[in-house]
Amino acid sequence: MRVFGLAGWSGAGKTTLMIELVRRIVLRGIRVSTIKHAHHAFDIDRPGKDSHRHREAGATEVMVTSGARWALMHEIRGEGEPSLDALLAHMTPVDLLLIEGFKSEDYDKLEVHRPELGKPMLWPDTSRIVAVASDVPLGDLPLPRFDLADPDAIVRFILERTGLSR
């Protein structure tokens, strides 16, 4: 399974870009899955629902299933955040796994950068950033640069980089 990621500061547009990339890659007949890192607690079920009640009662894992989909929720319960490798072991193999976040993990990634956020670029201080996408020209960088308004060019780059271009 090939892995490629998007990294950048909150508000830079990683999720918006990720959605466009997934749509365009799937249209090429490539199977894609995603992992998104959240920096806070989150729920995918709601209070009052059976799955939420199971977790609140102390279950370590709760699986919800139907004829349309299944979801597995795992409560960490003080064990510490799992590594990306540990999370990858839970994923069903596909052609391409796109990761949003996990900027310090060791995999190739595209930095999504918007100068108006007032944050510094992650490159060159973050390992394995292999390209940058922005909504403005960024001057001289020794990396491939892409316009956020051109997701097709970013898709071509990712597929070439991961060996999935056809």
Describe the protein in words:
By secondary structure, this protein is of the alpha/beta class. The chain has a single domain, classed as Rossmann fold, CATH 3.40.50.300. 23% of the residues lie in helices and 24% in strands. It has four helices and eight strands. It has helices at 14-27, 50-56, 84-88, 151-162, and strands at residues 2-7, 32-36, 61-65, 70-74, 96-100, 109-113, 129-134, 145-147. The strands form two sheets. It has a six-stranded parallel β-sheet, covered by helices on one side. The longest helix has 14 residues, at 14-27. The protein is globular, with a radius of gyration of 18 Å. The model has no long low-confidence stretch (mean pLDDT 91).
Short description:
With 166 residues, this protein is of the alpha/beta class. It has helices at 14-27, 50-56, 84-88, 151-162, and strands at 2-7, 32-36, 61-65, 70-74, 96-100, 109-113, 129-134, 145-147. The protein is built from 4 helices and 8 strands; from the N terminus they run E-H-E-H-E-E-H-E-E-E-E-H.
Low-confidence stretches: none
Q: CATH superfamily, called what? A: P-loop containing nucleotide triphosphate hydrolases
Number of strands: 8
C-alpha Rg, in Å? 18 Å
State the helix count: 4
Strand content: 15-25%
> Structural class given helices, strands, pairing?
alpha/beta
Protein name: Molybdopterin-guanine dinucleotide biosynthesis protein B
Organism: Telmatospirillum siberiense
Domain Molybdopterin-guanine dinucleotide biosynthesis protein B (MobB): 3-135
GO molecular function: GTP binding
